Amino acid sequence: MRQRVIVCPVIQNKGEFLLCKMASDRGVFPGQWALPGGGMEPGETMDTALRREIREELGEALCVTEINPWAFRDDIRTKTYPDGTTEEIYMIYLIFDCITANRTITFNEEFQEIAWVSPDRLKSFDLNEATRITFARKGML
User: Fold this and answer.
1) 18, 31, 64, 135: which sits with the fewest CB atoms below 10 Å from its CB?
2) Using an 8 Å Cβ cutoff, are 80 and 26 in contact?
3) Does the model's pTM come out above 0.85?
4) Cα(5)–Cα(70) distance, rounded to whole angstroms?
5) What is the pLDDT along the chain (141 residues), one digit of tens a residue?
């Protein structure tokens, strides 16, 4: 089984959190709402990987003003690829609290849509299990 270290930003702006609806044909949680993020590449630091993932998934214009390490955890997930094949992966999540100065986002093909969500509305979204665990540990679910 392959192992991946995942950097996961919990992005907040004006009291609301960024959620991304995953593409329905790929990823670990197809079609569900999630936090952005992804795997570290060889030779990257956590900060470099986190900033690269934010830039790749959410665009160059999103201005992250604060990054603070928050938590870590692990689990085993099944990833679905665009061709329909699947793979079990042992994932280690490094979770960061992030604050942005704006909401300017250009998301990539990994997502169908995005939403800025207040804590009281989190329960109304079809959050993937990993995102539910994160917000539950923050005391919001």
Assistant:
1) 31
2) yes
3) yes
4) 15
5) 999 999 999 999 999 999 999 988 777 777 999 999 999 999 999 999 999 999 999 999 999 999 999 999 999 999 888 888 999 999 999 999 999 999 999 988 889 999 999 999 999 999 999 999 999 999 999
